[in-house]
User: Which sequence fits this backbone?
């Protein structure tokens, strides 16, 4: 059984447990054992860098130090915010020798520059897809839009993942399971991220525009790979409907849930029950 | 004569190594910014204001809503022809504003207390304990009724753990906070 490090992050342990469930179910199908990094802490997500720059590097650096101590050479970070913060910390410590020494001397933080950090799409491409290709039984033949958001693609110089303005990786994966990904304008627009509680008005407006374009382009589902995007577009739907003066029922589905359905995994094992907006068409 | 060292234009260059003079006011950053409409002045105007290098204008920036409503989405940096890292400049300005106690009054009622509630959850448990963050945020903002029904539905769906998930080596983490005095 292949062993790969796993960094769930706070969302996957709580507000987005259905995402975690679908990832574990898929991984089990292909015989991958995801090993959770022991005693991990919060990466600081979209918040800490606002008020404490050094801490925002130190927190993810501690996680990478633990990964190194636990002899993990590759880790999957399914939450786009965690993926983003881990990559930025690794980059900062790579280029800033002074900071690297300082963190080592004060906190015994020492990270491996070569540890590879995978986001969920890279993980699926590298480990999952080849092995489940033959198992696809129900083609997910719906028109969908793939929503990448900010954190998977920016800052491009550091993450170096996919294309900056018009990424294709999720669209390609969705095509392979039979879906019809639509070209649309909001692929990498912002959903309002961490403002869900503090500036709900901004989140509702930005999500409203995203949902409006998805519906106008004829999509039946929005496919996502980030717990924050999913939660803003899904759990805030009643406010978004008020903003749009319209009852919308387009579901927001994790890419792992869509792939799971295609290979015949039951809805309940993919956490579909936890979605606020029900995908009634499936 | 003002001490030039304390002008934001110089501080940004010395502390984070970004030369604001490279900005030639094309406006692409503001055009793509999702929250331009919620700012008191947009990112490109802010760049011009820093370039001018006057103390009064610097204070206006540090007291602005602009630096707090920026969501750090990174669109401005990705589209800037001069590759100026505006999100990093704004991160730096927020911290200057806190240090000088010049936080924007409106943001002090929502965005800033949320950041602190979030930070405290990490400080005490090592991870995010959603209910803890929500309670502290409500206490800080006196906004007791916000999102109660949402929280209820999230709880029903099993998305809101009742108890915090505390890490073992909390000492290591509290040492970070002690060193950074936050
Ligand atoms: S995009 Fe860059 S050069 Fe253009 S106005 Fe903004 S900061 Fe200045
Ligand atoms: S990072 Fe901030 S200033 Fe730049 S586009 Fe996004 S919200 Fe606007």
Assistant:
């Amino acid at each position: 059984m292949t062993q790969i490090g796993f960094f769930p992050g706070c969302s996957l342990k709580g507000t987005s447990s259905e995402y975690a469930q679908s990832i574990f179910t898929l991984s089990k199908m292909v015989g991958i054992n995801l090993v959770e990094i022991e005693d991990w802490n919060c990466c600081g997500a979209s918040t800490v860098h606002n008020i404490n720059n050094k801490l925002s590097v130190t927190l993810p650096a501690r996680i990478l130090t633990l990964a190194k101590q636990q002899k993990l050479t590759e880790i999957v970070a399914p939450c786009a915010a965690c993926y983003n913060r881990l990559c930025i910390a690794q980059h900062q410590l790579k280029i800033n020798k002074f900071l690297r020494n300082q963190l080592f001397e004060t906190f015994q933080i020492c990270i491996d520059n070569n540890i590879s950090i995978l986001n969920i799409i890279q993980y699926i491409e590298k480990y999952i897809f080849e092995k489940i290709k033959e198992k696809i039984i129900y083609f997910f033949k719906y028109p969908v839009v793939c929503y990448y958001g900010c954190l998977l693609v920016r800052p491009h110089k550091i993450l170096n993942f996919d294309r900056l303005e018009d990424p294709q990786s999720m669209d390609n994966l969705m095509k392979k399971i039979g879906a019809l990904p639509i070209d649309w304008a909001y692929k990498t627009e912002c959903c309002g991220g961490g403002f869900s509680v503090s500036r709900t008005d901004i989140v509702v407006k930005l999500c409203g525009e995203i949902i409006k374009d998805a519906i106008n382009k004829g999509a039946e589902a929005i496919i996502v790979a980030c717990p924050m995007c999913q939660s803003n577009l899904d759990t805030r739907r009643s406010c978004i409907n008020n903003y749009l003066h319209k009852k919308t029922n387009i579901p927001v589905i994790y890419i792992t849930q869509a792939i799971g359905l295609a290979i015949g995994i039951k809805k309940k094992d993919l956490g579909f029950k936890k979605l606020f907006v029900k995908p009634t068409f499936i | 004569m003002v001490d030039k060292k304390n002008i934001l234009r110089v501080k940004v260059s010395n502390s984070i190594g970004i030369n604001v003079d490279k900005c030639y006011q094309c406006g692409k950053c503001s055009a793509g910014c999702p929250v331009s409409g919620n700012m008191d002045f947009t990112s490109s105007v802010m760049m011009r204001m820093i370039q001018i290098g006057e103390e009064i204008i610097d204070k206006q920036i540090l007291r602005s809503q602009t630096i707090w409503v920026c969501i750090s989405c990174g669109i401005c940096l990705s589209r800037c022809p001069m590759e100026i890292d505006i999100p990093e400049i704004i991160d730096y300005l927020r911290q200057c504003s806190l240090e000088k106690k010049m936080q924007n009054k409106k943001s002090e009622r929502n965005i800033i207390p949320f950041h602190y509630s979030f930070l405290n959850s990490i400080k005490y448990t090592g991870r995010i304990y959603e209910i803890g963050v929500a309670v502290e945020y409500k206490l800080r903002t006196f906004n007791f009724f916000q999102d109660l029904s949402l929280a209820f539905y999230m709880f029903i769906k099993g998305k809101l753990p009742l108890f915090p998930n505390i890490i073992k080596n909390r000492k290591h983490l509290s040492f970070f906070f002690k060193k950074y005095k936050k």
Notes: Residues B 32-35, 43, 70-76, 86-87 surround iron/sulfur cluster (ligand 2) (CB under 6 Å).
